[in-house]
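Marked as duplicate of an earlier ticket. Keeping the data here for the record.
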Amino acid sequence: QVHLVEAGGGLVQPGGSLRLSCAASGSFFRLDAMGWYRQAPGKQRELVATITSSSSSNYADSVKDRFTISRDNAKNTVYLQMNSLKPEDTAVYHCCATIATAWGTWPNDYWGQGTQVTVSS
């Protein structure tokens, strides 16, 4: 059983910073790409940033130069450093990880439960 546990959400003023983390736990063979997605009320879930196992990253245009994704492979953890936060960044942020649970099996996407980020004065 694979679990993704997110932490670090909260309420922050515009211009402030937050750091999210997501740790993968359980029994699995290989952890591939990890990423963050977000969903605001009344909107579809959208990609925020992804990072491969070799730390190649990709960002949505709306967060480039403000957010930084990183990972610690020894801890099976991905981070999202969010700076210069704007009210439009308010959303539930979900962690996603592509994981192969055993040798020779096709990897699947696993999702965390989400953490609320609210940017408001």
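See parent ticket for discussion. The mean pLDDT is 96.
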